[in-house]
Amino acid sequence: FYHWSAGGPGIQIEKSAGVMDDVEIYNNTIHNTYCPGIWLFNYDTSSATRDKAKNVYIHHNIFYDTGTNPSITWVGGIITGGFEDTVIENNVFDGVYHAAIANMYINSYTPGYVPEGDGFTTIVRNNIIVNTKLRTKSPSGTGYGIINYLPKTHSFVLENNCLYNNSAGNYKNCKSTTDIYVNPLFADPKNHDCHLQSVSGRWNGKTWVKDKVSSPCIDAGYAYSNYSNEPEDNGNRINIGRYGNTIYASLSGVSEVNDAPIMKPISEVTVKTGENMSILVKASDEDGDSLTYSASVLPAGVSFNESSGLFNWRPVNDQEGTYTISFKVSDGKLNDSEVAKINVILNLSGEIYNNRIREASPEDVFPDKTYLDVGGISSVGRYRDFVWFNVSEYTNSTEISSATLSLFWYYPSGIRPNDTVI
Length: 422
Fold this sequence. Notes:
The chain contains 1 helix and 31 strands. It has 422 residues and is mainly β. The chain has a 6-stranded parallel beta sheet, with no helix packed on it. Strands 2-5-8-11-14 form a 5-stranded parallel beta sheet, with no helix packed on it. The protein has a 5-stranded parallel beta sheet with strand order 3-6-9-12-15, with no helix packed on it. Residues 352-367 have low confidence and may be disordered.
């Protein structure tokens, strides 16, 4: 039974007289309680029985949204006072008010008996404490994961708990050297499924499933806790949280390491126009993953096979120059890349026509005289002539890659002007 405006603790262990030793509370889901989820309170003053409140063992429970009462301060997950050698382990506390666990008395009660040594000791281990909220009444100083309001008479021993996203912080008047502070990665926190995600296997209520990530709480519990009930592979260490050392503990194993493919360097290539060239882009992958290749913007005429990495090209005239092409290989998750430098040069290995204009088309060259005059004579005037080159008869080629014009200078007989220049 629960209601926001009525009720009491989910479970109350109250000692006023007699013996209240060796109590075990386990396998419960306690939520939306008006008062604490569990309340331990000892106000026995009898010298004969006042020390008979010890060895309470609270384990493998889930608490969420407990402590909704807006009118009292002693709300939370577990509130304890006056109990000795209490062990709280492998529980989950999610979104409780005030504190997940607190040492406190109500109404300024002062115990008449305190055990010798370190007083009332509570061991808190292998628990997950997340999203603790401020209590409604007197919220200042609340919202911690664990609070000790009674440091003179009570103490906590904190071992291998996971605390995360608690509104005010993790501790008040207590500390730990072995707790972790990470997202526990519950399977479905919105629906209070507190199984831990695992790439090796997680129980979903019907069968074992695998996740993409593994919870940091797997194999992170107290080194001396029993883990024998966890299924193999259990990493030989208990899990933190509700299902540690149970048959439903998430399996050990870390996220599979994916090695990136490695592309081999590509040597610089020089090719002539009109000639074929090929580059086989090669890469290796330690995991044996299927690889795909891609390339940056490719020149016209290139063919590239993304499966084999084969690059083919026959550059043509006007494509002379240096090309820098980036090739990339991917295994679907990671990639590598290399840059290829391709130099395209003009192909001069074809037929070279030497002085063929005069031989092939003599009727079009110097048809009226055997030489060409340039310059001028003072009594005649200045003059010049034109030379036209007709290459239409060279039908076995579509382009002229180069041409050489040879000029031979000589002086005709007779007087010549002094300013003749060529």
